Amino acid sequence: METKDPEILLKEVHKIAPQLADVREVAAMIESFGYTDRSMKDWGFPDVFALAQHIFDRFPKYIAPKEEKKTKSLLSKIGTEISIAVRKCSLSLAYAVPWMVLLALQYRYPDALQVSPELGGALSLSLIASLITSGGFIQMISRSGNQFYGLDEPFLARRSCVSLLVLGGFCTLLFAIFGVLIGTYFQVFAFKYLVLGAINYVGLSFLWMFCAVISVQGFGWFIPLIFLISGFGVAGIGFAFHPNTTTLLMLWPPSALLCALACVIPSFRYFEKKKPGAKDSARPRFSVAFITLVPFYCYGTVYFSFMFADRLTAGSAIPWVSGLSFGIDSAYTKGMDLVLLAFLITAALVEYFSDSFLKYWKEMAIVLPQSQTETLIARLAHRHLAAIVNICVVFAAMSLFSWVVFSRAFGLVLTGSLVQTVFLGGLGYLMLSLALLENIILSSLNANSLALRAVSIGLAV
Fold it and tell me: What's the half-sphere exposure (Cβ side, CA atoms, 13 Å) at 74?
């Protein structure tokens, strides 16, 4: 039998990896080509590691690619960075804009959304519960959908998203029934308020999951439009038929959900018509895909639990003998609303800072040879510190802006308890913003277990 030329395999390895770390990396690539120790006699070597050592010793020295001449003007570079920042910030800002509008309406017209304290507590708790329990499914949908759309497999993306929506919907209904039973047993709210809270919880949970699908499809700016259109629709019903406030509040989630469906279904068809040949693509086993997505579910659930841990603690701090279940002190609510608004806007920019850091890391890994590891680490540390400083500056600026706007435009009275809440709450949300930067970087490096561990410890504390 004719002996094969190792130089052929060396060229194949060089195409895949211009730089090599050690012999084991070469051996792993050789085995990925389908070769084993038994087939090494065809190459004239006793085993895979012997051939890997032969290739590693003769591997050509890495030469860094020459930097291309930068012909773009400063204005074009700034415009490119702004477009990238807008695209990265769109989803988080999509959630922040409706929050700002609702907050402004609440402080400008305090009687517009006035309901009984018990109903307000039930609806607040259902809102928090919907974000916490659907947060894991949002992460799973985002991860799976982005993966398949990135591979240009629209049919697989739709099947994956629909499967996760069905699973998330089933779990949502179970959680709603379980919540009503627990609330009835412990007499947290009156039964009618428990039912209204459960209905609101189901509608909001489905809405958040469909918003995740819209984001995956690349139409993140549809989300604020959905909120605004459904809000104006419910307001129109209020002007036309004059129902009570409770009815209007219960009508908004299903109306927003219908608007989201009107966006999701045509978007699926749009991408599938662009690539009809992908219809017969083999679908991965759902059980295997689900197991790989479990860490993302855990991370999303723990992260939203962390975000609303203060509200849950404050709502449960009021004694039940007062007759108010899950009522939150007014000064505490106003202070936390201000810094939460600053956090939502800062979180949008964190997406851009983390993406910029990872892109810089990739560029440095291409330009610098592996022998200059210390230089790479030093440059990454400097870039990482710059991102942290930028986040702190943006958060402080947005907190100050929120304070000025709400104290002057909406006549917010500044008291000692309000100032204390804003300071301590702002410090907490600033730390959460920095943690979000680190978690995005870890998730992008497929180190979700580390991110989940850190957030879980923080939540426990």
Answer: 0
pLDDT at residue 321, rounded to an integer: 45
Instruction: Report the pLDDT value the prediction gives residue 256, as an integer from 0 to 100.
Output: 93
Q: What is the DSSP string of 177-208?
A: HHHHHHHHHHT-S-HHHHHHHHHHHHHHHHHH
Label residue 169 exposed, middle or buried (CB < 10 Å: 0-12, 13-18, 19+).
middle
143: tokens are 């991860």
Which residues make Cβ contacts (< 8 Å) with residue 338, sequence separation at least 6? 399, 402, 403, 406, 422, 426
Amino acid (1-letter code) at residue 381: A
pLDDT score, position 390:
93
Nearest to 421 by CA among 328, 333, 302: 333
Tokens of 194: 């428990």
Contact 163, 286 (CB under 8 A): yes
- For the chain, list residues with pLDDT below 50: 1-2, 67-71, 320-323
Cβ atoms < 10 Å from Cβ of 361 = 18
CA-closest candidate to residue 427, choices 310, 315, 326, 313: 310
In one letter, which amino acid is 417?
A: S
Instruction: Give pLDDT tens digits for 236-261.
Output: 998 898 888 889 889 999 999 999 99
Residue 402 to residue 343: CA distance in whole angstroms: 11
Residue reference for tokens 């449960």 = 316
Assigned token pair, 395: 């958060």
Nearest to 284 by CA among 90, 144, 106: 144
Q: How many CA atoms lie within 13 A of 360 on its CB side?
A: 18
* Distance, CA of 243 to CA of 237 (rounded, Å): 8
pLDDT reported for residue 191: 92
Quote the tokens at residue 457.
């410890």
Q: What's the confidence (pLDDT) of residue 70?
A: 47
Q: Give 256: exposed, middle or buried? Use CB within 10 Å, 0-12, 13-18, 19+.
A: buried
Q: What is the pLDDT of residue 74?
A: 67
Entry pTM: 0.74
